[in-house]
């Protein structure tokens, strides 16, 4: 036995197989590329061209009195205007608060709900269905319903608070610059925590039951079982979920636009609603385009990490 | 006693109203004196009684009249986009719309029509997009503020009433002003309307106010609103101040103009749209009045900062709001809401409808009465931007002649507006409308007090963004009144100068 091992040790490692060049890989897989060519062409038309046009437009001044064909080249002026504006930085800070709080709270609530629903109990299926309702309800309809729930004069929440003796007057949720953004975050979390719940419930299916039982037999507490067994199995799906939530929240439009229109005094204005206002309500297409390019760069950065998280381990699997 | 007297009140208050109404008419007449046209109806006599007296006095044969402009046997094609009746509109609007297209087919059997009805909120964006792709329709009907943007950008062909067989004197001077850019007309008014003050007479009585007398001035309105709130604990006046909402300037600008203010000089006899008035004493006084109601008296809805008029309809029909500014169609809308109510709510809603009153808009301290001149205009697009690259001018003129005729400018605006063609007021159909639609005479009589928004491409940004922002800055006490008007003035000036931040 030991002799055999010595013989194997003496044999030099075979040289690593040379990775074929990109060109030869494309030629080798030309049929596959032909299959996806129509889809790529369509994407070039409906995605690549608008991106190119937005980038081009971002270098032009587009006064309301001129047609777009008469736009005036102004170099980086639009970017300078945006980046030196105090409003931009105020909106950016609000966007960060909106995105970070919405994502964090929705994820934590979704995780809690997923863990709870992963256990067997009577009525689990019904509860799972009920918790999915916010996610399937139209965002427009939900926004109008919440607007009335929050209504500063006749809202159900305010009336309940008064009836319960919590406050003397209905709480001013939306017509107050200090509370409006956080009130909208609550609606956003309500709307999207189910998404996190579904993703994490799927992730929980990958946690081997045998490991959990073994840990239990070894005397691990529920927290230890979660932290050392369950959570490591959820890390990939958690990364993907968080990234998707971040992208979704950066791009949120319906809830702030319908419920407050960005007000009062711009306190609920976030990037995407501000871009919409600049481009479509104020017809500053050039500045709006430059703003959109900045958002695009952030989205692409997040997209890169998303794809990386999604494809983590693919190369090793391909090598094996 | 005239209808105006009945709605405005009795005794001394009626006399006061009459004096002020006379002043307003004189003012309107003086504003119109700049025009070279002799109007086809006598605008200096404009009053609810005059409107009633001329209704049904003239008959028209539309197909024949338009046949003199474009022969009825003309063969061609026209494409048209407009905001037609949708599901929420009354049945009569659908019937009249259908009847128009049937009548057009009879008058011009050889003109092929390709028509799209697009919602109010989508039309502008869709039209802008189509223009960029040279796929616009030959004819488009846009809201009153919409046309000048496209005229300035060179998308529209010059078009005036004379091109389709009418006279400029057949239309409101203010309406023609709204389609005139740098001295050239780019459209024809299809319909015009103004809003009025609506109040709940029972709430007035419960608060110890004369139920049949609306506040005569905006200062009175502030006092009425406070009285109602203090005595009954409900909102007095339905202030709306939502950001990014056209609803806001439609209700606040009349107040601003009445006090002698303005965004630019749009309320002047001959506006040049270069002078900034938003920080003058009148504008400050108007903004202060709004702040007094919201901050000091708390007599208007707390939700004003996120409200549009649609949000005020619920509280009004529930008897929780005493006064609003709205369209002539508001009465029909309230009736509709009442018909959908049930149980005790139904009783309450029916009582509110029975107690609804319409009155003239309040005046400023010096008797000036003003209201936004609303409506729509019809335009002809240049060939370069039309699908196929060709505009069939004869077919276009045939359609525009029919659409803006006295007959169809009444029928197509039956439930919601007034005829753009003044001849429409003389038709039998106008007489029928006046008999059918309650309070129509009041809103119609506000037309001479109508002021169009500035006729410049930047007007939407000034009205829909800067004016609401100014209100919000002051109402939330983020800025003082002085700071808010100066901030707004700086932004308006920047826009006029062609710059402006974000």
What does this structure look like?
The complex is a heterodimer of chains A (320) and B (502). In chain A, strands 1-2 form a two-stranded antiparallel sheet. In chain A, 30% of the residues are buried. Chain A has a single domain (70-310), classed as MetI-like fold, CATH 1.10.3720. In chain A, helix 6 packs across helix 9. The longest helix of chain A is centred in the first third of the chain and has 32 residues, at 86-117. The two termini of chain A are 28 Å apart. In chain A, 72% of the residues lie in helices and 1% in strands. Chain A has helices spanning 2-10, 22-28, 30-57, 77-83, 86-117, 124-136, 139-150, 156-163, 180-204, 209-217, 222-250, 254-259, 271-281, 285-311, 314-319; strands at 60-61, 72-73. The radius of gyration of chain A is 26 Å and the shape is flat. With 320 residues, chain A is mostly helical. With 502 residues, chain B is an alpha/beta fold. Chain B folds into two domains: 34-193 and 373-449, 3-Layer(aba) Sandwich (D-Maltodextrin-Binding Protein, domain 2), CATH 3.40.190; 196-369 and 458-496, 3-Layer(aba) Sandwich (D-Maltodextrin-Binding Protein, domain 2), CATH 3.40.190. Chain B has 21 helices and 14 strands. Chain B has helices at 3-8, 11-32, 48-54, 62-67, 91-107, 120-132, 147-152, 173-177, 201-206, 218-232, 247-258, 281-296, 309-317, 330-340, 343-354, 393-403, 406-411, 428-436, 440-445, 459-475, 481-496, and strands spanning 76-82, 111-117, 139-143, 180-181, 184-185, 188-193, 196-200, 235-237, 321-326, 356-359, 371-372, 374-380, 418-419, 450-451. A six-stranded mixed sheet of chain B has the order 2-1-3-12-6-13. A four-stranded mixed sheet of chain B has the order 8-9-7-10. In chain B, strands 4-5 form a two-stranded antiparallel sheet. In chain B, strand 4 (180-181) and strand 5 form a beta hairpin. In chain B, helix 10 (218-232) runs parallel beside helix 12 (281-296). The longest helix of chain B has 22 residues, at 11-32. Chain B is globular, with a radius of gyration of 22 Å. Chain B starts with a helix and ends in a 6-residue tail after the last helix. Residues 1-37 of chain B have low confidence and may be disordered.
